[in-house]
Amino acid sequence: MTHATVDILVSGAGIAGMVTAAGLARAGFSVCIVDPSVPADSADAAGSDLRSTAYLRPARALFDRLGLWETLAPHATPLEVLRVIDTTGWPPAERERRSFEARDLGHDSFGWNIPNWRTRRELAAILSEMPRVDLRLGTGFSEMLVRDREARVRLDDGTHLTARLVLGADGRASPVRQATGIGVDTTRYGQTALAFAVTHPVPHGNISTEIYNSGGAFTTVPLPDHDGQPASAIVWMDDGPRSAELRAGPAETFAETLRLRSCDILGRMTPVTPIRAWPVITQTAHRMTARRTAILAEAAHVLPPIGAQGLNTSLVDVALLLNLAERHRETLGGDEMLAAFEKGRTRDVHARAAVIDLFNRVCKSDRPLAQAARTAGLSAVHGLAPLRRKIMRAGLGDTEVRSDRGGLPR
């Protein structure tokens, strides 16, 4: 049996967990980060996360602050235009189309898109070279005993650690959250999200598109060219049984349904990666802290994949946590620091979850009244320029909120 002492244990080496570990280490804390899985080194590798994240401007500011963007930038594709198409029936018939341009906000782009598997691979490489980081991939959190000034943790390889602060960034079934007894509220929609990458004959023009139809949103996000062809990441939400039927059926049927669902906006799409599936839920933790412990990212909140809010919301957690850790360096993990984190994030998390929940219900509905409201709302938002800019800024987190209120640093 081995034993080690660190300032902070991070359970979960997903993107949020690794960004947290990098930021804490750069601030001078000793960090051990553990995860039972190992990052995939390619899109085709077993278990690779084929979701793609559009890092909005506040997230980019955090990456710049931590010195991470230089490594990620070569893999990023800018999002210059957000296009929304409302449809009805099957095959989908277009009812309304609107485009929102970053230049309306005085920016060159709304954000930058990178496949999750690639981001995680690059971050793992960075952490492996950082002197204050003990990166233990293939090893997970098992249990802990919390005392007034520390937490004693056992990992699943039998190792024991003592830490002043334990952070759970270990996913929607978070072992750390379960160990603290923090409960969750979960809403299920009967939807499944399919994530994969495609090539297509029509260049994407750095445009991300959301197409609404019964079953949920269908989203295309621009990627770098693949083998000389334009490429995009796809997130396709639909009723669970329908998604399962498509995945299990003939490739030709899937390809034709994909063409129809995409309204042929980029021409016939050809999948170039495996197709991953996961259930769409909204899940929020009853609280985000416990004694000597904080939970963040999907351990604390899971949102439907709409408007790039999921991981970007997680990075707001990270930014506030880093600010508080530096401010409470001598009392790291104490009640005052954790109370500030709870206060700074809970209201924002629940507000975002409520908005995305409502938006998803409206987007997936095939009821005429819901469809009419969706179309009318889209037209109104786009038609009134001041309202459009305000909503765009709010959706992007570009509100210049103070970092001690839960926002990213300016």
How would you sum up this structure in a few lines?
This protein is an alpha+beta fold.
Give the CATH class of the domain at 3-54 and 119-186 and 283-363: Alpha Beta
Corresponding CATH superfamily of the domain at 3-54 and 119-186 and 283-363: FAD/NAD(P)-binding domain
Query: What is the overall number of helices?
Result: 11
Calculate the terminal CA-CA distance, rounded to whole Å: 45 Å
Task: Determine the CATH topology of the domain at 3-54 and 119-186 and 283-363.
Answer: FAD/NAD(P)-binding domain
Report strand %. Answer: 25-35%
Mean pLDDT: 90
Second rung of CATH, namely the architecture of the domain at 3-54 and 119-186 and 283-363: 3-Layer(bba) Sandwich
Helix content: 25-40%
Q: Please state the overall shape, judged from the principal axes of the Cα atoms.
A: globular
Sheet of most strands: 9 strands, mixed
Say how many strands there are: 20
If you compute it from the alpha carbons, what radius of gyration comes out, rounded to the nearest whole angstrom?
Answer: 21 Å
What low-confidence regions span 5 or more consecutive residues with pLDDT below 50? 380-389, 399-410
Give the helix/strand class. Answer: alpha+beta
Pathway: Cofactor biosynthesis; ubiquinone biosynthesis
GO molecular function: FAD binding; monooxygenase activity; oxidoreductase activity, acting on paired donors, with incorporation or reduction of molecular oxygen
Organism: Tranquillimonas rosea
Cofactor: FAD
